[in-house]
Write a structure and sequence with these properties.
The chain is of the alpha/beta class and about 260 residues long. The protein has one domain: 3-Layer(aba) Sandwich (Rossmann fold). About 55% of the residues lie in helices and about 10% in strands. The strands form two sheets. Strands 3-2-1-6-7-8 form a six-stranded parallel sheet, with helices on both faces. The two termini are about 20 Å apart. About 45% of the residues are buried.
């Protein structure tokens, strides 16, 4: 579908088209489209912008990735469809691995997502087939299957998009979790160590920029950024951003 750049919903419509294409290619399941729609609703009431709270969280997340011993970026079908090249660029910048981890898991889907990542420059992709031989303790879904050389031995895991059960169990297993979730009220957001309340198509490029900037800083400064970040407080600011944006529309005509 040809979408004119002058369309007021250009970015949103283009994103939807990319997810539809990903569905046809076998990367995205129909449930992933529903999940995206829920996130898009929150993006709308955030003003479809990166807020100050998201900027602060992005800085803390980049610092956490850079100070980790073994960071791993978890990839699902939606992120493989929307930001595959950006994910690999972030992984290289932060020295992180990438692992395919899916709720609706199949060998065919794993391999298709892995091929997309490889086409975008990934060296090794964790979590494919028998390589996902370890389990996250306490998690019952197929997301419990992880690569012992990837997420299974990570100390920091980046979880783009909502994933409450896994975020909770990874924390219980002693790992730090970075979440990207447009819903500041979700279990994912509340369970994570650092939550970026932003659209993944903005958050990942912003993380790349922050990682490049913070690489020049002393390690002690990065640790300070991580230790001083309060996820609950930052999430509360995101909720205030939503209410503030909605209040501005009181009495206005809709978009």
């Amino acid at each position: 579908m040809m979408i004119p750049k002058s369309h007021p919903r250009y970015h949103s419509l283009r994103t939807r088209e990319e997810l539809v294409r990903g569905t046809r290619q076998g990367l995205v399941v129909p449930q992933g489209l529903i999940a995206h729609g829920r996130g898009e609703a929150f993006d709308y009431i955030l003003g479809e912008r990166t807020t100050k709270a998201a900027v602060v969280a992005t800085e803390a997340a980049a610092a956490l990735l850079l100070t980790a011993n073994k960071p791993v970026i978890s990839v699902n079908g939606n992120t493989a469809s929307l930001v595959p090249g950006e994910l690999i660029k972030l992984a290289r910048s932060a020295g992180a691995g990438v692992e395919v981890n899916l709720f609706h898991r199949s060998r065919s889907r794993e391999r298709k997502i892995a091929r997309v990542l490889e086409k975008n420059g990934a060296g090794h992709v964790y979590g494919i087939g028998r390589d996902a031989s370890a389990r996250i303790p306490g998690l019952k879904s197929l997301r419990a299957r992880v690569d012992p050389s990837g997420i299974g031995s990570a100390d920091v895991v980046l979880v783009p998009l909502e994933d409450g059960d896994r975020a909770t169990m990874l924390r219980r297993a002693g790992m730090k979790v970075i979440a990207i979730d447009l819903n500041p009220l979700s279990r994912t957001s509340r369970a994570a160590s650092v939550t970026i309340v932003d659209n993944v198509t903005r958050a990942i490029p912003n993380l790349i920029g922050e990682a490049a900037r913070l690489k020049k800083k002393p390690r002690q400064k990065l640790l300070q950024l991580v230790n001083e970040f309060d996820n609950e407080e930052n999430l509360n600011l995101s909720v205030k951003d939503i209410t503030s944006y909605l209040n501005k529309w009181n009495g206005r005509k809709g978009k």
